[in-house]
Each structure stands twice: as structure tokens, then as C-alpha cells.
Design a protein that fits this description.
single chain; about 250 residues; TIM Barrel; two-stranded antiparallel ribbon; about 25% strand; globular
Amino acid sequence: MQTRALGTSNLVVSALGYGCMGLEAVYGPGAGRREGITIIRAAVERGVTLFDTAEAYGPFMNEALVGEALAPVREQVVIATKFGFGTNPDGTRYGLDSRPEHIRQVTEASLRRLKVDTIDLLYQHRVDRNVPIEDVAGTVQELITQGKVRYFGLSEASAQTIRRAHAVYRAAAAMAILYPCARCQCDRMARGLLLFAPLAGELRLPDHAQSTLLLGRRRHRSSDCVDDDYCSRRSNCSRQSHNCVAL
């Protein structure tokens, strides 16, 4: 298995990571606890070292599953998780929530569920426009200083948002559902790009087919997209990158 260093950080991971969201019946029937553990450990045996989860998956249950599955090999793997959705104790959502106090609460809960002392890579799951990204970056920086987090990441954030966050604290990685200009922006700002669901998205399409981008269940032309959070994707970028990891 080839490896990648995310951006200019010291975080080295396998070029192919395992996104654990699908174990929670997101794309179809979910895996049970025993089957999920077997799948995750089989990925480890095949050289995968990056495992991606989130508070929102399940919610809560996916982190617990990942933590249990990876406990015997904790020193061999990198665990990434995310905050950013407002999730009630009963699992219902109330929108986005990246208030600093909420980030701290979610991080403490994620540490308990994952059964780890430190989260290797902590992402903001979605940009919360009610909370300045500078406050988000500053809060994660505090968690890093406290030893609860190693690296900061952003998911589905525009280049402008990444730059604003960078002015406070450098993000090691950015996550995007589709390949296009997210990679260009990450290269310019020395970030690692994590591409999720690549085989279900544009990576399988020829270059001439990239003028239409699949975002969730809707299709948008690249000309419809602007440099905005969750829609910062254009289609004229090369696909060669030493900092790109597929989930």
C-alpha cells in the first residue's frame, strides 16, 4: 500500500483510506457490530491505516464501532472524526453547530466513544455560517495544545474559508466529495486532500464528462458553482497529486 503525507504535516497515511460511514446503513443495509469489526480489521490487514468516522454517523454508534475495532492496533492507524452537526442525545439533529463550547463537548464525547486519548485528525464536518471559522480554528488549536487532537481538518469548505482558518491555525487536510478544484486549492495552500466516495463520483468519468458534477442527489454544472462552502468545485484541474487520499 502506498502512503501519503497530508500536506506539509507529519501525518502519513495509506493512499487508500476506509470511510466507515457506510457501516451505519447510509447507502443500504448496515453492518452489525461483529461484521463491522471484521470489515475494519480486514482493511487493516490489507494495509489501510486511515479510518474516517464522525459523531453524526449512527449517530454516535459508528465512533464506538471504530474505536472497538481498532483498539488492538491503535498505534498502527490514524483515526479521523468530525464535529459540526447539532445532534441531540436521542439522535435527532437541530442543524449545524460549531460553537466553541459545542466543539469541546463533542470532542470529549468522541474521545470516550473511540476509547482513545487523542484524536489524530479532527474535522469540521460542515461549515457553520453562524460561527466565524476563525473561532472554530482557534478552538481546535486549543484542543491540539491540550493534547486531545493532533491535526485539524475541514470538510466541504471553500478556498476562502480555508484561507481564513489558516490565518489562525493551519489545517492539515481538506475533504471533498468530488475531485475538481478542491485539489488545486489544497496544492496551493499545502493541504492534503481527502476525496470521499471517489468511485461513486467524478473520478470514474472521463475528462470531457466533468462539466456536470454530482452533488448528493442533485446535478449541477460546474459553471453553477462558486467559491463557496459545499460548492467550491470546478472541473479544470489535473488529477495527479502526492497529497491526495481516497476514502
